[in-house]
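Human:
Focus on the backbone:
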Amino acid sequence: MNAIPKPVLITIIALSVVASAVFAAPIPPMWNAFALSMLILLAALLLLRRQNKSEAAAAHAAHNIPQQLHELLDEEQQFINRHLADKTNSPEWVTALEDHHELFSIRKDELLEGFIRSEGLKKYIAVATVFARAERFLNRGLSAAIDHYYEEAREMLRLGADTIEQTQIILSKELPEAV
């Protein structure tokens, strides 16, 4: 069955609200017409809700957000470990860290936004609480690197990597299918 486009459903809803007000306003009210407009409103709302639910389910099935988050954490941990192994304290080292951190932050924000919708608030809090600590360490490491405090930057990156590992453990406990 083809779905009715959302703009059409929204238009039907708006017209039903207006029609119900018009039919209820005169004295005596036109109850039959009012009831019909309310039934049309209810039907349009139910169709819109069903369509939204099916779209959300399809999006969740197509994009396993916990799995993507786990992969992102793996990639970040590997990057940090490679970056820590590079002992050069050069501007290129800092630039690579900045560039990677910017991309990581954008992707992380997208995934966490979807994570709360797909997995619920309780699981989000369990994962995001530890993950926020990791992100603070990474931000501090980046800030220290930009200011040329390389030893402090490396220490913060190490702590960030350790906390990312803790985040992965919690993620695998909360959502074993993500691993």
